[in-house]
Structures are given as structure tokens and as C-alpha cells.
Amino acid sequence: MDIVVSGYAGFDGSRSIYQDKVYRERLLLHYNKSFFSVFSDTDDKVADGTAESRIDGNVGISDGAADRTAESRINRYAGISDGAAGDAAEGVRSVMQDGAGAEADKHAAARREFDGLLLKNKELGLAVTADDGGVLAALWHTLKGNYAADGRKYGAEYSLRAIPVLQQTIEICETFGLDPYRLSSASCAVWLTEDAVRLKKLAAAAGLPAEVIGFTKEGAAIIRTDKEEPAFLRRPEPDELYRLFPTGTFSENI
Hints:
Layout: E1 2-6, H1 24-30, H2 33-36, H3 44-58, H4 63-77, H5 82-124, E2 127-129, H6 134-144, E3 155-158, H7 167-176, E4 189-193, H8 196-205, E5 210-217, E6 222-224, E7 231-232, H9 250-253
Parallel strand pairs: 3-6
Antiparallel strand pairs: 1-4, 1-5, 2-4, 3-5, 6-7
Helix pairs in contact: 5-8
């Protein structure tokens, strides 16, 4: 069977580390807040809007008045009255809102279908979420919790580099000396499946990455093959966040 990882290892794909509720507060208490500012949500559009607002302020025009004045000038050049332009704009806005609503409903339905499939496969033992110990612990538990037709446990070959992980996760983990593949991963799961193509399509429709990282094989060994020398997967280890919070349990620290 194919081995598929859905979701991201480590942090779950939000643009900002501040939005990751599992890690945010405790990391900010222990480390320099300025480090995380590189993951802020300020983008070019916000910066452009600020600059434009400053220009309007310098000439004594409010932002709303400046927008309306510019819009009125464009309408006059095009030979359209402000009233007709407003009606047209409202019509376009309504169509866009309807389209956005339909797309949101479609996405929500896809996510429900994906979550239902995950729950079903977890009950069958064919999927494990990457909670304590991260995606590598989930990989171990998925394989060791299942048996081939002849009653033997599955072995596997896998590629660590095929596991979806965000660049921001890699940078944060390098800073703190953590292994991103042994971090509790809220959106991540490891699957055993005979239909990886369908699973990837369902995940994509639900807004999640999904990649085939390997396959099951005879023998008990779980071998990483994307290195010059094959390496055997170690038994699950404590979640990497315990290295940051050595006193008490992780649940007490968040």
C-alpha cells in the first residue's frame, strides 16, 4: 500500500506564527518577540494603502473622499453617470459575493468529506494523526498497528523529503534546534491507502497538501531511502516541544 501524508509537518500552514494557537503563547513567553515579527501578516497591499492614505492626508482629503473623487472622474471620462456606475458596481459586487459564497460552501463540503474519511480510516487503523511525537511517530504507529495478509507487521520504505513542510517551520526549527518531523502537527496525518490518487484529490479540494512518501513492503524495518546510506526509523520519541518546556507536561505549558 502507499503511504500518504496529508497536511503539514510542524506548524499547520498559517501565514503567521502568532496564529498557531498550539505554539504561540509559550514561545513568545520564552523567546524574543522580535524573532517572530518576520512572520507578521503585513504585506505589500497594506504598505501601499498606508502610503496612499498619507498622500491624501497631506492634501487635506479623507481616504473615503479621495476614493469617491477618483471614481467620479473615471465615470465622467467613460460617459457614465455616478448613479449608473453605482448600480453597475453593486451588481458586480453581488455576483462576486454569490460566487465567493458558493466557493466557500464547496470548500466546506470538501473539508467535511475529507474529515469524515479521516475519522473512518482512523477507526480502521489505516490513518494516524501526527499528535505527540509528530509525523514520524504517526508513521511508526500507522505501520506497527497494521498487519499484512500473512499476519506479519508491515515494513516500509519512505522519503523524508517528500513530507509536506513549510519553509517557516524549517527556519523556526533551525533557530531552536528542533526536528520539524517530531513536532506535534495539528493538521497532519499519515495514511495507508490503495488509492493515493483519490486521497490526494480529496485533500486538495479540502485545502490540504497530500503527498505519497513511500510504500509498505515485507519485513519489519521502516527504512528512509532518500539518503546516501539508508537509515532505519527509530521508535517514537518525546515531542520536540518538551525540549523547550522540560518542566511539567506539554499540556500544562500551553
